[in-house]
Design brief:
- The chain is an all-alpha fold.
- 75% of the residues lie in helices and 0% in strands.
- It is built from eleven helices and no strands.
- Helix 2 crosses helix 9.
- The longest helix is centred in the N-terminal third of the chain and has 28 residues.
- This is Membrane protein.
- Keywords: Cell membrane, Membrane, Transmembrane, Transmembrane helix.
- It is found in: Cell membrane.
């Protein structure tokens, strides 16, 4: 098995992991556990795992300096704590397909944040991309369809997902300097620990009061999937593939994730794909594609692989 094949296999597996989560989470929420309880289990599990691995693989590596420590705290707040609370709150209220499509707004937020924080140039195609993507997202958020009876609070859920994509896009810009300077497990253990301080106060009660004795086997398996595959394994595969994957290749898998989410949701009967949603998806995809076009003569950027996941 060539190294290039392993990279593609890792990226595809991560895309499948996150695409399946949009539908599998609907089994757990809200019947067996609330969204904040799931976030608590997921983050606490990741903190324990990444801290343990960091102890063995990078015991001497520490984040030093006031600026880096403040950045790591901000990354933990945006990328883990607030991000996860918004995502699962939104997914609990809206449909899997709508949530997966709105997640693709994150690369647009990355470009806007990079222009503000890193003084990167915004070209005319990128301005058009931001406008087109925003139009697609606004149409999706405000649309009402035949599923209104199933998701009566879908508009609020879509707004939560959009806010989630926004804070995650900001996180991607903030975390890059830390990932380049420190060992990956040093950064991951720190930001998940900070995220735990944000999320656990909201979700500990849901996690502790859930009626675990009533959980059927498939619910246990889906919760295990969200802790082990969705959080730990996906981050491990991402950090490994980041060494070999090009930005162009990452773009392909950014588009692949919502496509897989649609296929999984429709095949499981969790959602339906209408012509309206297809048109909204086309607008969002076109906007993301325009934004991803780098200015002529500009060096190819180092795109964080986490852009393809939540």
């Amino acid at each position: 098995m060539t190294n290039q094949f392993r990279v593609h296999a890792a990226l595809f597996f991560v895309a499948v992991i996150y695409a399946a989560n949009y539908s599998l989470s609907k089994d757990v929420m809200p019947r067996y556990m609330g969204p904040f309880g799931i976030v608590t289990l997921r983050i606490v599990g990741a903190v324990l795992f990444f801290s343990l691995v960091k102890y063995f693989v990078a015991p001497q590596d520490k984040i030093i300096g006031r600026a880096d420590n403040m950045r790591s705290i901000l990354c933990g707040v945006c990328g883990i704590g607030v991000n996860q609370l918004l995502f699962f709150s939104g997914l609990n209220l809206t449909s899997p397909i709508s949530a997966s499509l709105l997640q693709t707004i994150a690369p647009i937020v990355v470009v806007i944040a990079s222009a503000i924080l890193l003084s990167e140039k915004i070209t005319l195609p990128r301005v058009l991309g931001i406008a087109v993507g925003a139009a697609g997202a606004a149409s999706l958020i405000l649309s009402r369809n035949a599923q209104a009876a199933i998701y009566p609070h879908a508009t609020l859920g879509n707004l939560f997902i959009l806010a989630n994509a926004t804070v995650f896009g900001l996180y991607l810009v903030l975390v890059q300097p830390l990932m380049r300077k420190y060992h990956a497990f040093t950064v991951l253990s720190r930001i998940f620990l900070v995220g735990a301080f944000i999320a656990v106060p909201f979700g500990w009660r849901e996690a502790l009061t859930a009626d675990y004795a009533s959980f059927p086997l498939y619910i246990w398996l889906e919760i295990g999937y969200m802790v082990i595959f969705l959080t730990i394994l996906a981050y491990l595969l991402n950090n490994w593939a980041l060494k070999y994957a090009s930005p162009a290749l990452l773009g392909v898998y950014i588009y692949l994730q919502p496509v897989l989410a649609v296929l999984i949701a429709v095949s499981l009967g969790r959602d339906t794909l209408s012509w309206g949603k297809a048109g909204q998806a086309a607008l969002i995809f076109l906007g993301v594609w325009l934004v991803s076009q780098k200015p002529k003569g500009a060096p190819e950027p180092e795109v964080p692989l986490e852009a393809v996941i939540d």
